[in-house]
Specification:
Layout: H1 2-18, H2 20-42, H3 44-47, E1 65-67, H4 72-81, E2 84-90, H5 95-110, E3 116-121, H6 128-132, E4 140-145, E5 148-153, H7 159-170, E6 173-175, H8 179-186, E7 192-196, H9 208-221, E8 228-232, H10 235-239, E9 249-252, E10 259-260, H11 270-279, E11 286-287, H12 297-302, E12 307-312, H13 322-335, H14 337-344, H15 352-359, E13 368-374, E14 384-393, H16 410-422, H17 424-428, E15 436-441, E16 449-458, H18 461-465, E17 526-531, H19 532-541, E18 553-558, E19 563-566, H20 573-585, E20 609-611, H21 616-619, E21 626-632, H22 637-641, H23 643-652, E22 659-665, E23 682-686, E24 695-696, H24 704-713
Parallel strand pairs: 1-3, 2-3, 6-8, 7-8, 11-17, 12-17, 20-22, 21-22
Antiparallel strand pairs: 2-4, 4-5, 7-9, 9-10, 12-18, 13-14, 14-16, 15-16, 18-19, 21-23, 23-24
């Protein structure tokens, strides 16, 4: 092996001696390469320039201590010296931090002297804040009440909402000096927690600081302030609840029994009081504030069941919120099952009219709504009929003085008659000259039961004259216009004409009609409110006008059934909302599914007509044209691939005025269920004069010959 190496080196030296120019070129090239590598490596540190030192982020004239070098220790000193402080951790490059800067400065100018505002640059890599904190997003806003904190603010980054939350931290407890203030405090839909303390002792009454910390714990747990805390110092005011012992904590609930904190079971600590309040609070009405358009908050709530969404223009700093009060009042009465049960059991309710009503009710015929049904003849040769008076028991809470001539709506009577005809054989074979009644328990619905009173009649006029009335109602100021009367009537006018009755639900559920409806129907609703100033884009997607002036929109969304209904706000909000909820709660609801669609495009001479929800009937259901409808969506990749095939098909039939090729964006235009498809792309052919016989394109390749044969075949 060494011999071979020596021979190779000897040959190389011989060749280099014969060609010295090649040797010199190789040496120069090697030196140049080594020098270039050495220079590039020596300049590597100078390629990356150091980041410039940070500068002031907030305005110099704003009352905000801007610690742009990330001085966390100085921020702690400023916070400890103030009673209430707000610390904002920001990143200079963050767009949300930039947009929140002006809002925070506006709040700082309004609350200057009351709150210490501190801003810390938590992005500079040499600052102490960046080394100690690793936030998921920016900005992060923390509030401190003396030594208690941090209380993170997670609400909208607007001046109004931020100021409202800051003021709640500044005054976590509300003082109630009189019974009027106490009544006003309990009138809100949020649950209220009241503590009774005597301030004669020094420096603070026993348990007061624990109660104050409980209110701060509640704000830390729920930034929306779902539970409100207040303090009573007057014995006369406390006796109205009633509270007798100093240090007692009382929680007011609207639809359930109010509670007193059980000191004999739980230690009186801020954590226990806060946990007790949140465990026993009522979820009557909830504010939803989704963070951005991709938030899953709204979807998570809609997955729980049918939801009533009310979009209202909300001002957090306004003292009176009349629209919010109206919605809250409806939600409170809707969930007040205990009041409805007390009324049905005849307990005293405090209202003279209600007491009179419940004391005179009968268990069988209470607030009846009746229609007459003539059953078919039991035998073909018989000249007798069984005539039945079908009466629906209305929901509790209707005062007789408020109802004049109640009538059955078509939807309510249809629901009762469906159950009645299931038991028709029981009444068809009845032969009785006397009135026979049967009280039939209905299914779980807003109507607890209905009653059928039947009698056998001949077709003679005399029997009609002697037709008995059903058991009479208690004496009251109204009579049912559909009850049997003493005057003679013919069989023709004894048939039920429920379709000619009054509007869907105007005759019942009046006044207390919505009270306790949650417990009398299996179509339970969740109540939610959204600020239309922040979340109007959700309302637009559900059918609200994009440039609406009122910014008030109400809808019921049922994700499970894939339907939603929209309220017409031509009426007063409270009345319209009650009727809307009652119509939805009826077993056979008269509400129509709302179809969201794009605006009708301007007429054009294009080969393919664009169909929307509004133009579907006029274009697709035209009885004089054969229509081929192409279903697509903007996110469907296969739909885009087929565009050229659909265009070729439209050109093929361009000369035939009886054939139209149309397309519809199914993601933006809702259609009735019978015209929807389960996948995209899809083709449906609607032949002229036979629209009911529409045909779906079979599972074949989407080619021009297949499409032409499909159209010509049908």
């Amino acid at each position: 092996m060494p011999r071979r190496v020596r021979d190779s080196l000897r040959q190389a030296l011989t060749q280099m001696a014969r060609r010295p120019a090649v040797l010199c070129g190789a040496v120069v090239l090697s030196c140049t390469l080594v020098l270039a590598i050495r220079l590039s490596c020596s300049r590597a540190k100078a390629v990356v320039a150091p980041a410039p030192p940070p500068s002031r982020f907030f305005s110099a004239d704003a009352p905000v201590a801007d610690l742009f070098l990330g001085q966390l220790a100085q921020a702690e000193r400023l916070r400890a010296a103030a009673e209430v402080s707000l610390v904002c951790y920001y990143a200079p490059w963050c767009g949300r931090s930039v947009s929140a800067r002006a809002e925070l400065e506006r709040v700082a100018r309004r609350l200057a002297g009351q709150v210490q505002f501190v801003a810390v640059n938590c992005w500079w890599n040499q600052g102490r804040c960046r080394k100690q904190h690793n936030f998921y997003q920016y900005p992060v806003i923390h509030l401190y009440y003396q030594r208690f904190g941090p209380i993170e603010y997670r609400g909208p980054l607007t001046a109004a909402y931020l100021e409202q939350f800051t003021r709640r931290v500044m005054a976590p407890l509300e003082y109630l000096p009189s019974r009027d203030r106490l009544q006003d405090f309990f009138s809100y839909h949020e649950p209220g927690v009241v503590g009774y303390f005597e301030f004669n002792s020094s420096p603070q009454p026993p348990g007061y600081m624990v109660f104050l910390a409980s209110a701060l714990q509640a704000l830390k747990r729920d930034f929306q302030g779902g539970v409100r805390f207040a303090v009573i110092t007057n014995r006369q005011v406390a006796e109205a609840i009633p509270l007798q012992d100093f240090g007692a904590v009382y929680m007011r609930r609207h639809s359930n029994t109010s509670l007193i904190f059980p000191r004999h079971k739980l230690n009186f600590t801020s954590e226990n009081v806060c946990q007790w309040a949140f465990e026993h609070r009522e979820g009557l009405l909830r504010w939803l504030r989704p963070h951005g358009g991709k938030s899953r908050l709204l979807d998570a709530e809609l997955q729980r069941g049918a939801a009533l969404l009310v979009f209202l223009p909300f001002d957090p700093l306004a003292g009176a919120q009349p629209l919010v009060r109206e919605v809250a009042d409806v939600a409170t009465r809707y969930h007040s099952c205990e009041r409805s049960q007390q009324a049905e059991s005849g307990e005293q309710t405090g209202n003279v009219n209600e007491q009179w009503l419940w004391s005179r009710r009968t268990p069988l015929f209470e607030q009846l709504c009746c229609n007459t049904v003539v059953l078919p003849q039991s035998h073909s040769i018989s000249r007798t009929h069984n005539v039945c008076e079908l009466c629906i028991n209305q929901s509790a809470g209707v005062e007789p003085s408020e109802v004049q001539a109640p009538r059955c709506s078509f939807h309510e009577m249809e629901a009762a008659m469906d159950s009645f005809y299931l038991k028709e054989r029981t009444f068809v074979h009845l032969v009785s000259r006397n009135t026979e009644c049967s009280n039939i328990q209905s299914t779980y619905s807003p109507f607890s039961y209905y009653t059928a009173c039947c009698k056998t009649l001949n077709e003679g006029r005399a029997d009609l004259d002697n037709l008995s009335e059903p058991p009479s109602l208690p004496s009251s100021s109204f009579t049912s216009s559909t009850q049997l009367q003493d005057e003679p009537r013919t069989l023709q006018n004894m048939f039920a004409h429920a379709e000619s009755s009054s509007s869907a639900v105007n005759h019942h559920f009046l006044n207390g009609g919505i009270t306790g409806l949650k417990c009398r129907t299996n179509k339970t609703l969740g109540f939610y409110m959204l600020d239309s100033h922040l979340h109007w884009k959700f309302a637009v997607r559900l059918g609200a006008p994009e440039n609406g002036t009122t910014k008030v929109f109400t809808t019921i969304v049922n994700v499970l059934d894939e339907v939603h209904y929209v309220l017409d706000h031509s009426e007063f909000l409270k009345d319209a909302l009650e009727n809307f909820i009652r119509n939805y709660s009826i077993l056979y609801s008269p509400l129509k599914r709302y179809l969201v669609g794009e605006s009708v495009p301007r007429s054009s001479n294009s080969l393919i007509n664009e169909v929307t929800t509004q133009s579907f009937n006029s274009q697709v259901m035209d009885p004089e044209k054969d229509v081929l409808l192409f279903y697509y969506t903007q996110w469907c990749g296969f739909c885009t691939v087929l565009n050229h095939v659909i265009i070729q098909l439209a050109r093929f039939f361009q000369g035939n005025q009886k054939i139209a090729v149309c397309r519809i964006n199914a993601a933006k235009n809702d259609l009735p269920w019978e015209y929807m498809v389960d996948r995209f792309p899809a083709l449906l052919f609607f032949p002229r004069d036979r629209k009911h016989a529409s045909v779906k394109f079979p599972d074949l390749p989407f080619t021009l010959p297949n499409l032409v044969r499909f159209v010509l075949r049908h």
